[in-house]
Input
Amino acid sequence: MAHPNWNSILYIGLYCVGAVGVICLSWYWLQLAKAITSIADQLKTERFVNFKPKSNTVISDLTSVINGRLQTYDTLVQQLQQQVQDLQIQTQLSQRRRRNTEAIIYSLRDAVVVIDEFDRLLMANEPAGKLFNFDLDHAQQRPIAELMDARRSEFVDFLRQCRQSKVEATRHQVEFYKDERQRTFDCIVSCVHDSKEQVSAVVAVLHDITREKEVSQMKNDFVSHVSHELKTPLASITAYSEMLVDGEADDEQTRKEFYAVIQSQAQRLNRLIEDILNVSRIESGLIKVSKEPVSLAILIEEQLQMIRSYAEEKNIEIHAQKPIVYDQVYADKDMISQVVVNLLSNAVKYTPSGGSVKIEIDVDDVASLARVSVTDTGIGIPEDELEHVFDKFYRVSANKAQAKGTGLGLNLVKQIIERVHNGRVFVKSQVGLGSTFGFEIPLATERKLTHV
Output
């Protein structure tokens, strides 16, 4: 009988025990996998809170830990979701504010330029693009110095200095050429700071003050001219009055001459004051206007009666055409009378002895306009001064020696015709041959005549 091979038996036994161990371990991990799978299924169906493991303490503990972790993570996920929603709302509000800010900037009539901390263009509105001649669509993020020509270097340096000095707001006047004309801008520059108090952007707003400066200069000139014009007749009145008081007029003839000078200067002073007041009233819109249907031919004939005596003293002939069929205008009779008198008296004043003055009326039925022109054979006006003859206090330099004047008469004509009667003044002249001054105003329509 053969002896058993104990080594083989032992080997077989150990093999069987190992196999059983592997089977048991596999079953354990299988149960664990089932438990985890079940937990996952419960998590998917949101019923994992009520999950109750059937057996095995390890699986129960593991399940409890996983449930606790999942609940913690679920709370964290909910918090993160709420934060994301809050961030989305804040982002939408920020975008809306940015769009509103851009819309406001783009709607401004003033030029607005925004650069970053590296002097690159961040934003500019349409007026800025027109002023500096750059394309808004392709100018962003480009250095501002590259977008400006050499004539704008002073403005670029000003922006750079403001950024470096970190000023909150500063003002400076700059001048640019726009539409081939030099214009003045009031430039306000402000720096935008970030949370670290570093400059993140520089904003410049440019307001065109060219007109304001012109008006201010006109006011200064007006005061200067008025002071000068008032002093001249006042000086004459004062001087001749003092001579009368001092008894320098020994005889009646001398006293009459002094009286005449005083009266003449007083009348001149009165006319000057009246003209100034009338111009001021018209410009301010405070003058009272009383319009009615007026025949220009009849009105002119009435004013000629006053001018003819003055013209005869200078040996000047006045020619007027016969009344035409229909020349009625809807106008303030006193104002138009003043316009006609000013034009006729100017024509006689600047026409040498032996000359002539002609006044004509022309009716344009197509344009529904009445045109009055006064032509003289006077000394004429240089071409380069024609555009200024209707300016306030302007007098042609070459004609000052010919006659005295205040320089307000033609300006008053312009104000009455253009501002009060919606008409137009015009002038043509040639030195040595004479001048033609005139105006156009609308004819009286049937509707206006009906409502009188």
Notes: Confidence is low (pLDDT under 50) at residues 1-18, 24-29, 46-51. The longest strand covers residues 181-193. The radius of gyration is 48 Å. Residues 57-107 form the longest helix (51 residues).
